[in-house]
Please model this.
Amino acid sequence: MYSEWASLSAQITANSCGAQCFSVLNKFPASAGREVVVSVVRQLGTNLGITQNAEPSHLVKDEEVKWCMDVICFGLSLPLQEHETIKDCVNVYCEWLTALHPQPRISVPKPICEDANLYARQIINHFHNLFVPRQGESADTIKRQAVLCHRVLRTLQQTAQISQLMDRQTWDTLLLFLLAINEILLAPPTVKDDVGDQLCERVLSVLFEVWLLACVRSFPSPSMWKTLQESCSMWRHRVALVDQWNRVNLALTSRLLEFSYGPAFPQLKNADEDGQLIPVGMSNDCVAQTWYRFLRMIGNPTAFCSPHIISKSSHFVQWALTHEKGAETHQHPCLQLLPQIFLNAMKGISSQVDAFLALPLTSMGAGAELAVARPKCNSILHVFHEWLFEAAHIGGDTWRQNRKKQACEASKRPSSMIMEHRKGSISLSQPNSLNDPASLPPTLTIDKYESGRAEAIGTLCKIFCAKKTGEEILPVYLARFYMALQQCLKITESKECDETLASILLHSGDLFRLDLDGINVLLPGFIAALEIVLPDKDLKLKTQSMVFNRTELRRSAINILLSIMVLPLHYQALPIRDLSSETSEKMFTFIQLKSRLMNILMNALQVETDAQNTHMLLGGLLLCVQDAVTFEETDMGGGSGATHMHNSGGAQHHEANLLSSACSERSASLVSTGTASLGAQTTATMGAGSGSIRDTASAHDYPSLTISDDMSFEFGQELEGVTTYDNAHALFVRATYLVCHRLISSWKTDLNVSLAALELLSGLARLHIRETDALECKRAVKWICDYICYQCSRPPPAHSKDLHSTIVAAFQCTAAWLMQHPYLLQDKDCLQTVLEVVELGISGTKSQSKSGDIPKFKDEKELKPASMRVRDAAENLLTIILEQVGYFPSECGPESISSLLDELALMKHCNSMVPAAAASTEQAIAKFKYFVTENSTILALLEEPLGNDQDPQPTVTLLIRGPFGRHAWTMQLRHLPRSKSGIKYHAINPGRPIPMNDISQRPECEQKNFPDGVDKVQPCVADYSIPTIDQIREQYGSASIRELEAILENQSIHEKLAWAEADNSVDSLSHSQECVPPLVCQEFHAARLFLSHFGFLTFETRNPHNPAESLGTPPQRPLIVLDTKSTAFAADLDRLDKLSARTHDTVYVFYVKTGQTSAQQIIGNMVEETSLSYDPHFAGMLQTLGWPVLVADHSGWTGFAHNSWSLKGTPEEQQMQQMQQLQQLKSNVPSELNYNGSQRVLYWADVSSEIAFVVPTTWNLRYNSDTSDGGSLSNSDQIGSSNVWARCESDTGTGAAKSKPRNLSLELDTGTGRTQKDPVPPTRRKGNVTKPTLLAQAPAKIFLVWLESYEDYLNFPLEDLLAYTRTGEELHSLQQPRAADCHVIFVHSLMSGLLRVKLQGPPGRMSFATPLVDGMVLSRRVVGNLVRQTALNISRRRRLDNDNYQPPHVRRRLKVQDIVQKYKMDLSEAELLAHLFQRAI
Model:
């Protein structure tokens, strides 16, 4: 840099020598000169105003002043015993130097004031005598000399700062003087407590600070800069040199950053005194010039690693020649500080790099935020690469080879080449090889410089980790960096962690996330390093003096692990070349590294004690298992492909995926190798030589739950030796066992770790693995239940909000396992275990604490759950077991767990309902009778059959609205089986023939009154006793006879008519001969029958005089009648139906193109004109988040409160209008991205939660502004659908019925037999159910942001985008979601096809949930699943952390109680029975 400029070293030497022979008194004996000095200086000192008032000087001529200065010059060289005299000399000169000040002192002679620069230069040169070390002086006198030197330095520095008169020659004289005194004090080898040692820090600081002043007032010439550089090379054995060099460099760097990168660039925070180093008037160009010159001032810092170079000065040679035992120059004791000096120099360079990267000086490098406007990596490397790369190789194989090569070349040189002139050219960049390293003392061996080497490689890692998206780094820099890393990552046989390895891991967290070309060649080296740090609990350190935070080291190692976990399955058989070998003998493939990574992860998780580190490892574990499962499902052609792979691998893959875990921890992660199976009925035997697998799934619908616990320890050890156990099923088993075991043993007292472990177990439960091991699933459920039991059994002081949060999360995890594995409930032991835990959660105790105890019946127990939250969670699990396990999703689909029928829909199917009247919900409700039972369930009874005339049975249709949803049931009263129910009961007895009514034809014949022979009989007197008709006519007359004949004829006619009528009547003789059944009743009071048959009308006999047996208030009765005549009843029912029985969340998805920082730009990405420029993987990710649904037909959560959970029964005309409007709004949005909620939305749901994924567009802002201006979203029922509710109860009690037969599991017993140690039974906070509390927490806002450029996350306009993310359930203006409370999941696509994750959220104990972890690298095949799980877990954690949150079923129960209070009818028993006989309208 200054090779063509002459050095001023000779002038410094001349000035030093000349100062000592300036005075004429040197010609006289020392005693005579001393007497002259004492006399003259004492007189001059009295006029200075120190002991008395100052007087004008009597020296008025130049000759007089010069003579006095000649005397003072001699006085400054007196022995230190003449301290007072020397002190007077110093005082006089310091006063005279004020001639350069704006206001000189009165005691300054007039000639000096008239030509201040001339005399100042002479005075400055005379001061040299004061700084010359005196030999053989005592420590006390040396301290006195140091005090005087401090006075002179302070005066010179002050003069330089305030003087406006100094010319360039004076500045040069001052700078050369400072160089000279530094030379005389610092160039010799360090001797403890000598004057050089005491003044070292001070003289260097004054030199550098005055030099900076000179750069502003009179910029030094290149010769001056070259002299400074050469001088500094002679002082490098002084620690203070590097310290002051670092101090000045940082101060200059701070100013350099201010004008180079603008005020927005983070300011470098220096110490207050360091901030004053840079003069005020220094221009930007001057700062840049000065910065670069100071940076190069001490040469290459790697020279500190070569004591031979540092000790080449004449002072060290003189010490070596005069040493009594003989020694080499590099053996001086002061050189033992060189390793520390080298470390300080590297720290200084590292601090400057941190400043350019805007890293805080205290940062460990991992996770620190980098400035967006930071310089490119190439720019920083152009400045520092030579020093850093050489320093990183110190002590490595490459360094040793170069040293041997240079030693061979040096041996050919003549011996005269060894000694060089002290100011000659010195190769500062080459390690010295002229001396045998064996001659070095033990404290200077090359391994002692490892701390500096570690700092250098760590700094390089920070530089390369600062690469921006799309930034190019020169291949030569990448190559040198990779070579340096490979050298530093070499693991010794002792498997110890040295400082270099620790530094690399601490600062390389982002290396594998930045698309660095060829970075994967370092993968084997990093894996070997991780195997040193992570698996062992007690890290083996090379030296115990290593200072670093072991937890931070493990965290950084885990960050690296999370960034490389998916690489084996991503690249599979791609080879990894070895940098150090040209052959392919050491070549690895990516897939071969998978088992090593799995071992690192499992072992690290087993020994980790830090909560945050454990949280990260748990997220990585679920990523691995999920990735393996998805890989085997997709890339390998599903289950059959997976089976084929494992069977066709020959000896290498000779195992079947048939792992049943054993009880011991040792055998948790084993794979059956075909020799035996640990499950009695889950075996799949390997055919001898055939490779066929016998699948037993066909023999049994569900896997067996038989547990074999008699596995020997030796067999477990044998299985542990198997290395090929990293397939999906084996990972599932290992993960389940390990996490459950540690959850029970170590993690149960830590809230965050427990939640992360339970989240992981829930994620494992949802995995669809072909060879699902039922034994492991059962064991996992058993462990989770044991965890709940342990947490509940902890002493009362330990019961806290955090403890109960873990219990609630464990209940939710149990529900996930049972929903995904319903066959578990078919196992008697598993079912008993789960139900016992449910009972424990609801009541606080188990009915049977131990197996031998007598069970305690439910109605005999005192209900004291751990808390209301725990009881609610247990009730929810019980309902899921009873209603959902094995039955979800229903016919309604996963979008609803309630029936999609309501009163209006049911009445449309009734024959009596006129279609025109079906438009009114109130008219439909009037057809129903409403009752409430258990004070938590509303029964709506409809007595009309639903259009079924073919089978007229007593029919009742029920709409049951309870805490867990709305359900529709149709019931018929049957007395006969369906096979006989179609016979007509009004017909004649079918067992007899039908009688014949037809009369047979008889031949007509004349009827005879008497026999044929009657005429032959002779009549007697008696025969004539009866008169004939003629005699009667004669006797009575013919009129009477005719009247009688008429009567007879009429009678005959009437009788014939009567017989004819009787023959045609059912009362005829033919019909009335048999008994027939009565007609079937066609008019039913079905509701009354239902209530009576189900026991709702069975009133117990009570003693009215006994208060305990009184009927009680209406809410406590078994059946409560509701008055449906109120016009608000239908609205309240609708509000109840709008309360979902599941939690609901919304995730807002944004796409950010490179450089976009405004909300309008980001929202504008969703227009069709820009759809072609999307990353194609973005649309693919959207499809994996959920399934598309049409909002118009969707009955679940849509992302907006106004149209969620409603039956889509709008008239056709309105529906057509809505579709047309939506089509217009949709016209400018690409179809594959149109999920803004106007027409379509992405949706996902399980039995307990719903989540909608919305991609906002400009429509969302218009929609939100419309609804906020007095739309339907502001009413109380929509606010009531929020996720946030205050716990409350009805005004009349605890909110449940008191009758023992029905409500033993829902009511708390407030008995008085409680001891002090028992927990106090929890109660709900009182409040109004329809109004959420103002103290409630606003719903969490979760953003999913796709970044084209990773750095754009720093400028993401979160606050501005909140306006596009309103759901309509925001509570009040005071509780609008804030940007600080939002959770953001950033996803950045790497060039490799992988995805980098960045999490951002509010600080807090429970902010970040698994499985996604900040910095994790994912494969595209699992991103949707993991993002969805993370969003759900974030919301769950937020609810757990909210004191005022209530589960959905509790909100519904409280709403039912509110309806009861508003519409109950206070009926007595008689009035209730009478009400049942009133027909519905």
Summary: Residues 741 and 1096 are 49 Å apart (CA to CA). The longest helix spans residues 1038-1063.
